[in-house]
Amino acid sequence: MTAPLKVAVAGLGTVGGALVRILSERRAGLAERCGRAIEIVAVSARDRAKSRGVDLGGIPWHADARALARTDADVVVELVGGAEGPGADLVRAALEAGKSVVTANKALLAEHGVALARLAEERGLHLRYEAAVAGGIPIIKALREGLVANRILSVQGILNGTSNFILSRMEETGASFAAALAEAQSLGLAEADPTFDVDGTDAAHKLAILASLAFGVVPDPAAVHKDGIAGITELDIRSARDLGYSVKLLARAERREDGVLQRVHPALVPHASPLSHVTGAENAVTVEGDAVGRAVLQGEGAGGGPTASAVLADLADIARGLPAGPVFGLPAGRLAPARALALAEREGAYYLRLKVMDRPKVMAAVADILGEAEVSIDEIRQPHHLPSEPVSIVLTTHRAQEAVMDAAVARLAAHPALTSAPRLVRIEE
Amino acid sequence: MTAPLKVAVAGLGTVGGALVRILSERRAGLAERCGRAIEIVAVSARDRAKSRGVDLGGIPWHADARALARTDADVVVELVGGAEGPGADLVRAALEAGKSVVTANKALLAEHGVALARLAEERGLHLRYEAAVAGGIPIIKALREGLVANRILSVQGILNGTSNFILSRMEETGASFAAALAEAQSLGLAEADPTFDVDGTDAAHKLAILASLAFGVVPDPAAVHKDGIAGITELDIRSARDLGYSVKLLARAERREDGVLQRVHPALVPHASPLSHVTGAENAVTVEGDAVGRAVLQGEGAGGGPTASAVLADLADIARGLPAGPVFGLPAGRLAPARALALAEREGAYYLRLKVMDRPKVMAAVADILGEAEVSIDEIRQPHHLPSEPVSIVLTTHRAQEAVMDAAVARLAAHPALTSAPRLVRIEE
């Protein structure tokens, strides 16, 4: 049997702790499946005293993550996170020092992926990141290897577990966004500052990585249209459900004639779609390829066990002797620039919610304005309300162009009977 | 760039035709992603004249598949099928001649997998078979590589698209088994002799392969309990739906203290489970691992495009220089024997359907007999019926041991008011 693969681990939080524990528990089994052992030779974390449920006794400890680039490890595992800072510095330093890298750092890959890919590819090193997207679900491997024969038409999914938990709780319990967020925070599923989860930033980072693998473009969050879930109300959730949909924070990249359209936003997903059944903190990704048709991968999107499972899959591939190969499927120099395409050309159905003072007249005005724009109404409903409150009208449209829809909504917004801005949400299959 | 990977293809039906077409269309893209081209250097099929939508003009043709083992190909792709016969002979001959093999032949791998694995491993050759299970879904790769860190607890899925199409049509249209089967045949989704699809043989072959990868046992269909869907009636489908379940042909392997329990049988799957939403000819596999939790992979389980996509994923891995490694995850000599464990110890809920002449007395008798066995009834229903017909009673139980359930059902079967044998179906999460 070959000499063990020597690994240095930076970051011993939930994921790092699970990684060290699994590596110790499954040492023999992994060695048998990989043809060599995987051995931790150095660790780095801020708090040495913290209990992690595993014995780190004999392993050299470094307070500064960057020091791991100077150890004798073959591979550095980076679990510090952040597009800048010690984690990012370590990844660069490790590659420069000729060490392969396994990371869960989606922000770093999304922001600086192509530069890091060049660095790794020039030196024939691995830069692997199965754990960066959708936790333990092997979606990176599926796109880069399992579906390599396909011309990918679209990749879409639920990539942020926190948002999905909040939306699921709103649907299950009728809670408000604020109450569901507070519950997520109390369960440790949302951070004290939940901005990056609920505003779509985290999902956009992950989508940029998937889009790179699927479509051969540079990962670039600036090319992703982004809208979060904070504006979704109990009424939207309830109306969507009555109409046969669930509201999800959807991340979608699709091939168009003029490039790749990338977007993250709330969407109504019909109950017939597998994504509508993805609840709680789960993630799921649907890939549409010309040969394979539609494939769906679903599972836990975060947490110590699932994320460590993905990190270990990458380590096992390296241990087995898998050749390094291009980081994003195509060689870094061959990736096309990613551009933010206009959403105005999107064609699809829409959900529209209006709050109005005077229902009968507004009903007619809505019908008129949409009719003039040649937007055809699929269903229209007036949910229950208290007599003292403004009335809400919700409707769904047949397929229309987004530019047309936006113009019609602007006209509706200007109507004197509306008590607040209309809410437009895309419907996606 | 390295020299092209030379491939010989045996079998130019739907899958082989799609493979040749995709290889020709995506030649440049695949070469870029794999670091070398994939080139077909020989083909074999019975009917040379048949149109396949691709130009095979310059490629040497062999009437006998076995001749491909004597070409200068690096890899032989076997799409002939069958546990015995020319396809099986070719796989053996190719490995013996030092050529790697990619195959979609589940019967061959299930029946003779371990012997072939030894042959491949002794010679350091690839024997890859992503296409043998669940079409284009990369489930083999997921189990062998993506989830390698996990102690797998169970693998279960919908592995036979023909059966799933029949059950879905019965649920959607109220059709009988015979009518839904006829429809499947007219659509080319079932063969003229559908035995292996509807009696569970095909799913058992695939399950034996998944169980080997997941649990380190020898693939062995004889270790799989097997029951088909021919006994499922319209009433069962309707009753299940009313009770909140869909009927699926479920293939399941689970780790138990005394070994691995493998079984294929119809089951009621609750609507909350992702598997219940897998309709038509789709396949899906749920893997439960100690680190990853539950992961689900879903997609088209058959057809030219999806199957060719999986074959090409294997070819691309070989082209990239992936090391061959153990065929079933563990080296063949380390696989444990698979044994058929007793189903009597299964604990779970059940669905029971009884046809009776005299309802009130039988209701009491059923309650008595189940009560004496300490099987507790969850729901009991008497579906609508015509006055001239025997009455049906359907019920679901709380968790019970299968041996206890079997004994109670035997007592029920002996009751004089029953007009036919009771039908017992397992309920699975």
Percentage beta strand of chain A: 15-25%
Backbone shape of chain A:
elongated
As a whole number of angstroms, the C-alpha radius of gyration of chain A is: 24 Å
What is the helix/strand order of chain A?
EHHEEEHEHEHEHHHHEHEEEEHEHEEEHE
Poorly predicted runs of chain A are: none
Question: What's the CATH architecture name of the largest domain in chain A?
Answer: 2-Layer Sandwich
CATH topology title of the largest domain in chain A:
Dihydrodipicolinate Reductase, domain 2
Describe this protein with a few key phrases.
homodimer; 429 residues; alpha/beta; Rossmann fold; Dihydrodipicolinate Reductase, domain 2; Alpha-Beta Plaits; eleven-stranded mixed beta sheet; six-stranded parallel beta sheet; 13 helices; elongated
Characterize the structure shown:
The structure is a homodimer of 429-residue chains. In chain A, β11 and β12 form a beta hairpin. In chain A, α1 crosses α11 and α12 runs antiparallel to α13. The longest helix of chain A is centred in the N-terminal third of the chain and has 18 residues. The first copy, chain A, has 429 residues and is of the alpha/beta class. In chain A, the strands form 2 sheets. In chain A, strands 7, 8, 9, 10, 11, 12, 13, 14, 15, 16 and 17 form an 11-stranded mixed sheet that branches. Chain A has 3 domains: 128 residues, Rossmann fold (3-Layer(aba) Sandwich); 162 residues, Dihydrodipicolinate Reductase, domain 2, CATH 3.30.360.10; 85 residues, Alpha-Beta Plaits. In chain A, 56% of the residues are buried. Chain A is built from 13 helices and 17 strands. At the A-B interface, α2, α5, β12 and α11 of A face α2, α5, β12 and α11 of B. β12 of chain A pairs antiparallel with β12 of chain B, so a sheet runs across the interface.
